[in-house]
Amino acid sequence: MPRPLRYVGVIGRGGLVAIRLGIVGTGKIVRDQHLAAIAGNPAFALLATADPAAAAMTGVPHYPDMAAMLAAHTDIQALAICTTPQVRGQLVLDAVARGLHVLCEKPPASGMAQAQAMADAAHAGGVTLFAAWHSRFAAGVEPARAWLAGRAIRSISITWREDVCHWHPGQRWIDLAGGMGVFDPGINALSILTALLAEPVTMASASLEVPDNWQTPIAARLAMRTASGLPVAADFDFRQQGPQTWRIAVETDAGTLALDLGGAHLTLPGQAASPPAPDGEYAALYARFADLIARGESDFDLAPLALVADAFLLGERHPAPAFTH
Amino acid sequence: MPRPLRYVGVIGRGGLVAIRLGIVGTGKIVRDQHLAAIAGNPAFALLATADPAAAAMTGVPHYPDMAAMLAAHTDIQALAICTTPQVRGQLVLDAVARGLHVLCEKPPASGMAQAQAMADAAHAGGVTLFAAWHSRFAAGVEPARAWLAGRAIRSISITWREDVCHWHPGQRWIDLAGGMGVFDPGINALSILTALLAEPVTMASASLEVPDNWQTPIAARLAMRTASGLPVAADFDFRQQGPQTWRIAVETDAGTLALDLGGAHLTLPGQAASPPAPDGEYAALYARFADLIARGESDFDLAPLALVADAFLLGERHPAPAFTH
């Protein structure tokens, strides 16, 4: 659950010393979000990047893989691991075994057993492991959680519909086994859901649409419930053209709370819609990562991944027409 | 992990007082295994059974559901919940909320989020929750674990091939969403695997064969690895005619250890095969359940279920011909 953020650097003999960082996997999300967030945070100094399929891009040395990068930069203290999910887990385990602090892009592992092994290894090794559920740091999420804490919730409805052709053009990893399909964005909604609620959520049933040329679902309808029996419905679809929808609506005894734009925009009952705040999710992620390292803590919540695993485990699959993105 | 078993009853004012037990779900496994194990254990007194689809069978009162049974027998202290997995989880959560100790047939929950909620609720409520991985109590498992503890393992190979038509005739729940298909027996192998090893196991990749008229896999090939990198291969198949195979072979620096007959039959390198011991798995399960209640402890290991969830999450699905059982 997101906590109030505060800036905590690492204090060395000479004063504030930046954490020496490497990035593993330099795909779209790194170009779109990580680099600016790191550049804007004096707690981090980016030393190098690694990716077998990308060129150098940042003015720092670039390597074909994590091992080569770490061999050349033995002073790296922390990694942001942002590869595709299929290879992320083993890299994280290797990094933790080397005593490095790790920020894991979401989803933090390719499966639950691996995630548990990662958590155990980080705990045993005394390093910080951070599951970077970026949507939990969207501007509306923490105010929504605080407002809901005093209300009786009746039901929750999630609508997460976006155009995979726009957001993941040609990214085949998302439709291959292990790529999670529409749960790649959908897990963001589940990360917000599990941060908003004070009680656990479980999967009751799921209906998954799987295109003939995909291994993963392109759409999903989920029926979840909280421990106290409240219904939570979710509608995920990757074929949304026109306006995109990332909305969580919470019915309460005091009216409907709505989070739109993936958590950025909060509307409380009876209040005028406030303008969306500027996107500060990744800036907040890196502030939190620095904070965790300074405190010697980890933040590795697996609740969103467990719900995705359960949707695959329990879900009824229905064929859908082939779809190319 | 199985520990040495010892008999511990519950000591009341009048001496040894049996734990008052109810059974929820009275299908094949209850008739085949649970009733005899309970009858043979003086630590338990069976008070009643509940199942909407079965008739009374044991000389004790029978009810259409758990709520009716508990309303009529308010002195029940513990439940064995043996329904199909699709409905088991919520019943366990309800039972734990009533302050009852619970033995859960395997798999203990329909998903990982639910399993975690069950563990948390039992911990908060101070009741015993026991995930009854019966294969861990097969005669060869504990001796195998002890022998392996002193050896260097090189690789592990699991072959679990049985005839669904023989073992689950007409049981449609096994091929419906949430029924787990060939992982229903396969999870037994995974429960032994995770009990044999001192380190965690994760799923690297999986190939699943799914018949056109099934929602769940009828066969699976799994590539797992241990935290130290040892390969673990598994071959599960539900279409095995003729001899049935439930075998785990462990290659070590001191030769090959083989567990056959689902863990009942242990062969150590250079030793003559010992005759299979009589089947005592469910007797040992109930002894362990009584022991846990007496100690005020739970034993709710989710490692086998996590591996199954991961096989569904990561697995590549391949169509297979329709199959009726």
UniProtKB/TrEMBL annotation, chains A, B:
Coiled coil: none annotated. GO terms for molecular function: nucleotide binding. InterPro entries: Gfo/Idh/MocA-like_OxRdtase_N, Gfo/Idh/MocA_oxidrdct_glycsds, NAD(P)-bd_dom_sf. It comes from the Bacteria. Residues 19-130 form the Gfo/Idh/MocA-like oxidoreductase N-terminal domain. Pfam families: GFO_IDH_MocA. This is Gfo/Idh/MocA family oxidoreductase.
